UniProtKB/TrEMBL annotation:
Keyword vocabulary terms for this entry: Pyrimidine biosynthesis
Keyword match Transferase: no
Protein's UniProt keywords contain Thylakoid: no
Protein name: Dihydroorotase
Dihydroorotase catalytic domain sequence ranges: 53-235
Gene3D superfamilies named among the record's database cross-references: Metal-dependent hydrolases (3.20.20.140), Urease, subunit C, domain 1 (2.30.40.10)
Cross-referenced SUPFAM superfamilies: Metallo-dependent hydrolases (SSF51556)
Source organism per UniProt: Belliella calami
PANTHER family per UniProt: ALLANTOINASE (PTHR43668)
InterPro entries: DHOase (IPR004722), DHOase/Allantoinase_Hydrolase (IPR050138), DHOase_cat (IPR024403), Metal-dep_hydrolase_composite (IPR011059), Metal_Hydrolase (IPR032466)
Domain of life: Bacteria
């Protein structure tokens, strides 16, 4: 379809460009030439922003095995509605995404989705950190991202050998690094708030020790490691120094870590129980500095759907996780004044593309959104099968209006 986008403000990683007309056809968007381009559809984009298609490096579905939380189809609906052209899905299904059978099943069911799903295959069987999966066999299915998703690779021997295996095909290891024994029984950040409310805390040390150890292993083995959802001040400093040293290391942060702190947990809202937990204001400021100076490459949704029963219970017993795709743009609107639109867009386009090693050729996907449109996140607008979010039932600002991915076009 040949579409004229009139008066669109296009955002790149450096600027919010002045409004002008663009032409979209055959997966390409270019400046409009009246004599050259034949229009089939015209869209008034006055007041709208556009950018290259968004990429999420961390989201979860439930299929196979946990379809009641999120099926492949429902995840596809949520991703498209949220403006994402590509998304890395975690392997924490039942069974885990750990063999050719599961990989082929997901690829077949996802082939018709608007969003391209990039599979993070399990590095160890059932994501338990013990026996290796058939990494080389899975790579033959086109998979090059490996990790255990929500489970940390806490066994240093396993992590070392996985890094060595992945170098055979230039794969990348995604790891949510923390020491599970230092975080044992923890429910929220260890600090003044956890002490006041009497809840077992998870210290920054659990993350800091794991990242320090994993960087030392990376120095020894070589290879590439991507740290997911970092949350502490020292983690940022460690990764910053590793990058200066020239190690092949990248990192991302959950968008909600830039909005909430542990002070928001004083009323025990289980929808705010996430892993890693919301940290202190000092940690949040370090994360923001890390985004600004390039230490942190990407911002992720960390979309983790949970059913009603696993969240509607005592805080100590409730499952970790929050859905975060449809609220991603409203969260960016909240952060835009401090971080700027060019930086935010960079962290969901060029940054994730660099982590994944995608070609830096002209993009064939685009997202167009209205940062000022108000809408209510409720049962009618929610595309997910779950609703574990503190924003459910609230009025939000910022809505995706159109999205293109290759020759696919959707109007929302």
């Amino acid at each position: 379809m040949a579409i004229l986008l009139k008066s669109l403000q296009f955002i790149d990683s450096e600027n919010v460009n002045p409004a002008k007309d663009y032409f979209f056809e055959n997966g390409q968007i270019v400046s409009f030439d009246q004599e050259k381009h034949k229009i089939e559809k015209e869209i008034d984009c006055t007041g709208l922003y556009g950018s290259k298609g968004w990429i999420d490096l961390r989201c979860m579905m439930g299929e196979p095995g946990l379809e009641y939380k999120e099926s492949i189809e429902s995840l596809g609906d949520v991703l498209a509605t949220s403006g994402f052209a590509k998304a890395v899905i975690m392997p924490n299904t039942v069974p885990a995404l750990q063999s050719k059978n599961e990989i082929q099943y997901v690829k077949a069911k996802a082939s018709s989705l608007f969003t391209d799903l990039i599979i993070q295959a399990a590095a160890t069987r059932d994501n338990k950190g013990e026996d290796f999966t058939e990494i080389l066999d899975i790579n033959n299915e086109g998979v090059y991202v490996f990790g255990d998703g929500t489970s940390p690779l806490a066994n240093p021997d396993r992590l070392m050998k996985i890094l060595q295996y992945l170098q055979k095909f230039d794969g990348v290891l995604f790891d949510h690094s923390y020491d599970p024994l230092l975080a044992l029984f923890g429910q929220m950040n260890e600090g003044n708030v956890s002490t006041m409310v009497g809840v077992k805390g998870i210290p920054n040390l659990a993350e800091d020790v794991a990242i320090h150890r994993n960087l030392e292993i990376l120095r020894y083995t070589g290879g590439k490691i991507h740290f997911q959802t970092i949350s502490s001040k020292k983690s940022v400093a460690l990764i910053r120094e590793a990058k200066k040293e020239g190690l092949k290391v990248t990192a991302d942060v959950s968008i909600y870590q830039l909005i909430f702190t542990d002070n928001d947990l004083s009323d025990f809202d289980s929808n705010l129980k996430v892993m890693p937990p919301f940290r202190s204001n000092e940690d949040m400021e370090a994360l923001i500095d890390g985004l600004k100076d390039g230490t942190i490459d990407a911002i992720v949704s960390n979309h983790q759907p949970q059913d009603f029963d696993s969240k509607h219970m005592e805080f100590d017993l409730a499952s970790f996780g929050m859905i975060g795709l449809q609220t991603f743009l409203p969260a960016m609107v909240t952060l835009a004044e401090e971080l700027s639109w060019p930086l935010l867009i960079k962290k969901i386009t060029d940054g994730p593309a660099f982590v994944l090693g995608l070609e830096e050729s002209e993009s064939t996907s685009f997202t167009i959104f209205d940062p000022k449109e108000s809408w209510t996140f409720d049962q009618n607008s929610n595309k997910s099968l779950s609703k574990n979010t503190p924003w459910f039932g609230k009025d939000l600002l910022g809505k995706v209006k159109f999205a293109m991915n290759g020759t696919k076009f959707i109007q929302l």
